[in-house]
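Let us practice reading a record.
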Amino acid sequence: MEIFSIPISILISLMALIILMIPFVYYALGNKRNDIADVMWGLSFIVIAWTNYLVHSNQTKLALTINILVTIWGLRLSYHIFKRFIRNKIEDRRYEDMRKTWKNDQNVATFTNVFLLQAFLAVLVSLPVIIVNTYHSGVNNLAYAGVLIWIFGFLFESRADMQLKKFIMDPSNKGRIMTKGLFKYTRHPNYFGEVLQWWGIAFMALYASYGWIGILGAVSITFLITKVSGIPLAEKGTSKKPGWEEYKKKTPALLPKFW
């Protein structure tokens, strides 16, 4: 049956990511910097998109459009994180805390608990991309709406990242909470923009065969950001800063409040 093409595409995606992660794993093990995995995160989606595009020889305009959007998002994100990675001379505290919970071999845990887990999550989030690259499909109004949603999300995330970087680079802001710009409307405008982009891609995929499965990708990234590795970890340190409770009370975590 046609639907069995999806598991094959998922397997192909995982194989491609394992190849991608080899140099990153070696670097992480050699330098004890598992946070290099964050740099690889954006690149993973690009590899998934174009690998499936080439394997399935799918030359549709919809597949090409989605792959270009994913590439723009992935490159910007990886470059943004890479610059932060270079500035920081030690491993991100999140990964340091993670190491303390490992009872087995550290090298094996690095591969399975960081990189392999990230690969599975990237494939899960990429479901709408995989589906569009697997099945031939045309373009309808949902696709156009999805592009507009993606553009708004991309601009929102990019602007938020620039505002936050400028705030952090100012020494006078040390120990303070960013509450200006887009951060006045939501505590995490960058995450809101990222989630919005993936919902836009999910909308674009709806017209394809089994496109509804792609919604799982948007749901997954929303769950990860709001409940697992995004907002919870980001606010773990911020919650200790002065003025946090007042800021939290009047500013929503993700969905902007413009009134």
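A brief commentary: The chain has a mean pLDDT of 91.
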